Amino acid sequence: MPRLWLDAQGIPHSEKGRSKEELLRSGDIARDEDVLDAAERGDAAAVQALLDRGADANTKGALILASQNGHRAVVEQVLAKGADVNARASSDGTTALMMAAFQSHCEVVQDLIAKGAEVNARANNGAAALAAARDATVRAILVRAGARS
Question: Which pTM value belongs to this model?
Answer without folding.
Answer: 0.79
